[in-house]
């Protein structure tokens, strides 16, 4: 089989196409014949060497969709459509950047769909992250105001759509004024051009602050996002689009406003179930959700896809098909 192997930490060019044996399944694992997978920012940081537990060379990829090739437990039939996410995939063991992968049963989710593989490949991790952030971390409710910091990311775009279906008012941000209309077309009620300091713009719309903030840029804007919430408002840090993991200085009694609440979402396979995944796939098929797939690459173009992701040009999910 072909695999896109991250040979060492570095620039996108460290990802090389190699021929490897097709894996075999051990007890409690299955072999998936991969049809597509989405790219994720966490994979960019792993490739750069910021995931200390990852040993190179490694086939990255924390998600994939495809068909069962082998299942010793006979839980699934050969050819059955499945998704796999997280659980060490692409980090502790080889992941989705390949024609085949062997994965533990615990992170496998069956589904039925006639959607194209490139569409299905965009779904698992994006849906798990958005659903978990909005419903489990932020506990959004109808009538609330939601600020999405990093609105043109694939997570931000889907979060806006799901929040609107739940009856929220959405403020989305972008650093690029040329993308403002794209956010409005996606359903945002307000679009703010983000220079890193938008609290005054937000308070101009909602003087007492917004109810909830989905922070996708990360620590670069986290302190400012905390100043955008109302008393007992919540900020959930889910993304690190800004590229930094650690705040050098943070003063809780000062940076967090009185009665403000800060949480994070670091979901995994346990935060997804096959019923919710199937419901979401059906909603996409019925045209109720637009996934905003930005660009589709082939397996031998994974290095190019990583470079494109790192350039921050994308206005949605990047997918690789096999």
TrEMBL record:
Pfam families in UniProt: ADH_N (PF08240), ADH_zinc_N_2 (PF13602)
Domain Enoyl reductase (ER) as annotated: residue spans: 10-320
Top-level lineage group: Bacteria
Record-linked InterPro entries: ADH-like_N, ER, GroES-like_sf, NAD(P)-bd_dom_sf
Statement: the UniProt record of this protein carries the keyword Oxidoreductase: yes
UniProt keyword terms in alphabetical order: NADP, Oxidoreductase
PANTHER family: QUINONE OXIDOREDUCTASE PIG3, QUINONE OXIDOREDUCTASE PIG3-RELATED
Name assigned to this protein: Zinc-binding alcohol dehydrogenase family protein
Organism of provenance: Mucilaginibacter jinjuensis
Taxonomic placement: Bacteria, Pseudomonadati, Bacteroidota, Sphingobacteriia, Sphingobacteriales
